[in-house]
Each structure stands twice: as C-alpha cells, then as structure tokens.
Amino acid sequence: MSDIVSPPPPPHPQQEPRLLGLAAPARSALVTPISAARWLLLAVLIAFVYFFHSFLAPVLAALVIGFASWPIYRRVLAAMNGNRTLAASLMLAAIVTFLVVPVLIAVFYAVAEIRELVNWGLAANAQGAPAPEWFLTTPLIGEWLVEQWMVYVGQPGAIGQLLQIVGGNNLGNIYRGVLATGANALNLLLALLFMLVALLFVYRDGAHFASQLDRFGERILPTRWSRISRVVPATISSTVTGMTLIAIGEGIILGIAYAIAGAPSPVLLGVITGIAALIPGGAPLSFTLVSLYLVASGSPVAGLALFVWGSVELFIVDKTLRPKLVGGPIKLPFLPTFFGLIGGVKTMGFLGLFIGPVLMALLVSIWREWVRELDIADAKTTEESRISTKLNAG
C-alpha cells in the first residue's frame, strides 16, 4: 500500500499593509469584567440621579423612615404570617397616624397663629397700638423700647412706613416670594404623598432589594461591604430616633408648657422649639427665651416655672431617654450636625431638616470605620515588627 501524502496546508492570505502596522489579535480585555461592571453601575446611578433628582428627597425620606422603623416592621410582618403587602399597609397607616398627622396639625395651627399675627399687624397699622406694659419695667432700656415702639409701631400707618422703608422697590419681589411660598407648600404636599408611596414599596420589597444590594456590594467593596452594611442601618436608626423623634417630642411637650404658662402663640413656639431641638443647644435656648419673655411681661412665676420644667425635661431626655432610644454607633458632633441641617435645608427644603443630618451622620460613621481599619492595620504592623525584632534579638 503506497504512502498517502497529505496535501500541503493552504497558503495564508496575504494581509494588506496597515498604516500603523499589523494589528495583533486581542487576547485579553483592556478592562476586566468586574471593573467594567463597576463603572457601568456608577454611570447608571449618575444618570438616575440626573433624570430623577426631583424625586430624590422623597425617596431618601422614605428610605430613612424605613430603616428607622424596620425592626417594628419585622414584628408586624411576623404577626401577619409573612403577608408583606398587609404588613406594609399597616405600617404606612401607623406612620401617617402617629407622625404625619400630628405634624400637619401642628403646622395648621401654626399657620393660623401666624394669620392672627398678620391681622394684628394690619389693625395696628390702621389704628396704632400701645406699647406693651412690660416695656416700661425692663431695666435700663425700657424707655428706649417704648420710644422705638411708638415710632415704628404705635402710630397709625407706622408699620406700613416701616415695610416701605425695608421693602422699598422690592415689594414686587416680596409679593413673588409670598406666591413662591404657596407653591412650595403645594410641592411639599406632593413630595409627602410621593414619600408615602415610596415608603409602601420600601416596606413591601425592602428585604428583596437589600439582598440584591448585598450581592452588588460584595462585588464592588468585597472587604468593607459587610461592615458598612451593618453600620448604615444602625446609623440611620440612631440618628432619626435620637434627633428627629426626640425633637418632635420636645416641641410637643414644651409647646404644651408654653400654653400652660400663658405664652403667646404656643403652637408656633412649639414648632420653632421642635425645629431648634434638632441643633444641639437649640431647645434650651428656645424655652429660656420664652421664660425671659414671660418674666419681662409681668409673669415671673410662670416664666420661672417654665424654665425649671424645661430644664428638668431636658435632663430627663438627655440622661435617660436619649441613650435608651438611640443605642447606635454615632454621636454626631455639633459642627457636622449644623452643616447637615443647613446643607439639607438649602438643598432639599423642609425635608432636608431630617435627611441632611442623617447623610452627615452616615458620612461620619463611614469615616470612623475607615479610621478604625487603619488603626487595626497599624497595630498589626507594629505587633509584627515587635515580634520580628524580638526574634532577631533572640
């Protein structure tokens, strides 16, 4: 049998010369799939924030409330035999009943008291108004206060002239500002409605979304995600409970105390005190000023009793209730709290009062976690160096 000769291989097709030489076939990707996924996820998040930034504040508010009340939701879910829709509906009804409704009632009464002050100002501008009697009893500056009152308030038309001096040619801007305030109130109601809808889905689908987020987090931050995922809920819960709920409680309690002491516009003062209580030292400053006003207006017993009650209430809250309610890893200093409040209000309006400090507390907690990791790494390096030195010396 004759040998079978295999045919020669076909000649390679002649490649045309390229301007930059022959291109070698790429055997490996320039960017690894994990890096590409990270950058793609970041791009999607940036696009999401850009196109839906107007809904960002209500969604953040829903997430904050959901994080803070998640332990209660888990108990409700267990009582409902795992029916997530029913448990979420019950939690939403509870949030509306115990949080949203009291705030709206307080705002309603505060607006009514502001309307009464405006009506008093219109009457005083038309007919004039005598100076308060306690002006005369004020030490050192009593006569000066009466004189200033008679010049700017006491005479008919004095308030209008004062507004003309202050406003001048800006009366049109003031009018437009009043209209913008009404539009902002409508936007606030719409944001509140959107927040409640988002909160319903946070309760119902939050656990499923959290499990997916953990999978992405382990890919993006494999060494830090487990610690950050524990710090974030604890930080949000402690911040919301320690600042927001206690501030609302102090506003309600001190507002009732203002009404009992006979302070004017107690609901409005209570709302102001609750907002001021978000800032460290804001609540003591509020009830101290109201106490001084009562003392100066001829009610020293009521003013002293209000000051004592406010001091006792503040001591009880700070020393007993706040540590038990908060129980979180974050004790936010004054400066980050102040920046969180101002930045939150400037960026997100009224909702920023609650979201700004939470985001600032979250930033501080993550920063402290990273510093803690650096300290552990430095301590480990120091210990290894000490052991190595000891072995070399032996």
Write a brief caption for the model.
This protein has helices at residues 33-51, 56-68, 70-79, 84-127, 133-136, 142-154, 158-167, 171-220, 225-261, 266-276, 282-296, 300-326, 334-348, 352-393.
Description:
The chain has helices spanning 33-51, 56-68, 70-79, 84-127, 133-136, 142-154, 158-167, 171-220, 225-261, 266-276, 282-296, 300-326, 334-348, 352-393. With 394 residues, it is an all-alpha fold. Helices cover 79% and strands 0% of the residues.
Which key features would you list for this structure?
394 residues, elongated, single chain, mainly alpha
Evaluate the radius of gyration: 32 Å
Q: How would you state the average pLDDT, rounded?
A: 75
The level of helicity is: over 70%
Helix and strand succession? HHHHHHHHHHHHHH
N-C termini distance: 81 Å
Number of helices: 14
The geometry reads as elongated
- DSSP, total strands: 0
Low-confidence stretches: none
Q: Tell me the major beta sheet.
A: none
Strand percentage, roughly?
under 5%
Structural class: mainly alpha
